[in-house]
């Protein structure tokens, strides 16, 4: 029935290859599977036209070989480079694949898109380790006038496999991410105390050692309101509630002149409501929708 059972394997990741010969033609197939301790894993190998991928994994100088590195094609298989950085992967299905190499000593990666259109071909490639750089900057408050300390900043590289990293801004409101691979990335900042959010997107050019990128929180402003009684003249003694953008919600009582102020408000759409605090008039209310779009 085409099934094969392999028992007593160590926990870890494996590459599985199979081939079948009929007459003068041979079909190959390969897949990858991870085996957990005490469990059984199913690997399905589909036979079809395949090719062979071989090459050399080298450092950023394009000369120095990276020995005993781990090479992989997602969903296809694994290989290890030898002492000269050379590797070979057989039974690779036709199509376009992303080849990923990782230096076993430094953890640095190399990536290459490889197209295999012809059955039986042997493709030789040079896989070059990606350059790394430093991404740093500051988190700027919503007023654009200062930095914010103690804020979590997350960097996500847009390559599909590099794990996101999170740091906290220092007392000067700055953050730093060493060892970032060249390419596009996103920065996201969140102030857990206030709920403020900010973000930035940029690209680290290959060969650039340092890139400065600041993250700016959503713009903030201050707002004040004047609440009057129904005659339009007398200052009201009321509780005013402001709700709206970025889940902002706050309440405050008017002063003797009927005024109330709210600070550090994100720009956006809001609903403001006032309820009388005078005994016997607590059902007296007023509401208004507004957009705050200037600082």
Taking pLDDT < 50 over at least 5 consecutive residues as the criterion, the unreliable ranges are none
- Mean pLDDT reading: 89
Oligomer type: single chain
Instruction: Give the SSE string.
Output: EEEEEEEEEEEEEEEEEEEEEEE
Q: Provide a count of the helices.
A: 0
Shape: elongated
| Strand order, largest beta sheet | 5-4-7-8
Largest sheet: 4 strands, antiparallel
Give the proportion of residues in helices: under 10%
Strand share of the residues?
Answer: over 45%
* Structural class estimated from helices and strands: mainly beta
Question: Would you count the extended β strands for me?
Answer: 23
Radius of gyration, CA atoms, in whole angstroms = 30 Å
* End-to-end CA span: 72 Å
Task: Write the SSE topology.
Layout: E1 12-22, E2 25-35, E3 50-58, E4 70-73, E5 77-80, E6 86-93, E7 95-102, E8 109-116, E9 122-128, E10 132-140, E11 152-157, E12 165-168, E13 174-181, E14 183-190, E15 197-204, E16 210-212, E17 215-216, E18 220-226, E19 238-244, E20 248-253, E21 259-266, E22 268-276, E23 285-292
Parallel strand pairs: 3-9, 10-16, 10-17
Antiparallel strand pairs: 1-2, 3-6, 4-5, 4-7, 7-8, 10-13, 11-12, 11-14, 14-15, 18-21, 19-20, 19-22, 22-23
């Amino acid at each position: 029935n085409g099934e094969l059972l392999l028992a007593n394997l160590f926990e870890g990741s494996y590459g599985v290859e199979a081939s079948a010969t009929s007459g003068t033609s041979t079909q190959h197939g390969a897949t990858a599977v991870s085996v957990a301790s005490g469990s059984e894993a199913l690997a399905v190998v589909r036979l079809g036209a395949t090719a062979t991928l071989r090459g050399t994994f080298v450092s950023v100088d394009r000369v120095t070989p990276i020995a005993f590195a781990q090479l992989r094609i997602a969903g296809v298989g694994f290989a290890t480079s030898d002492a000269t950085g050379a590797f070979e992967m057989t039974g690779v299905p036709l199509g376009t694949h992303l080849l990923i190499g990782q230096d076993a000593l430094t953890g640095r990666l190399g990536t290459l898109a490889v197209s295999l259109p012809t059955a039986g071909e042997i493709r030789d490639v040079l896989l070059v380790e990606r350059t790394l750089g430093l991404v740093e900057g500051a988190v700027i408050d919503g007023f654009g006038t200062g930095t914010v300390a103690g804020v979590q900043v997350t960097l996500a590289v847009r390559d599909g496999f590099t794990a996101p990293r999170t740091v906290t801004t220092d007392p000067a409101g700055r953050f730093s991410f060493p060892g970032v691979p060249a390419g596009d990335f996103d920065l996201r900042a969140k102030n857990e105390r206030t709920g403020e959010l900010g973000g930035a997107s940029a690209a680290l050019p290959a060969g650039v050692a340092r890139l400065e990128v600041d993250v700016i929180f959503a713009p903030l402003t201050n707002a004040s309101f004047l609440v009057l009684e129904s005659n339009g003249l007398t200052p009201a003694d009321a509780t005013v509630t402001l709700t709206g953008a970025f889940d902002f919600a706050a309440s405050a009582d008017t002063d003797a002149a009927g005024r109330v102020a709210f600070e550090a408000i994100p720009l956006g759409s809001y609903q403001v409501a006032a309820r009388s605090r005078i005994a016997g008039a607590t059902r007296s209310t007023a509401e208004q929708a507004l957009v705050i779009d200037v600082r």
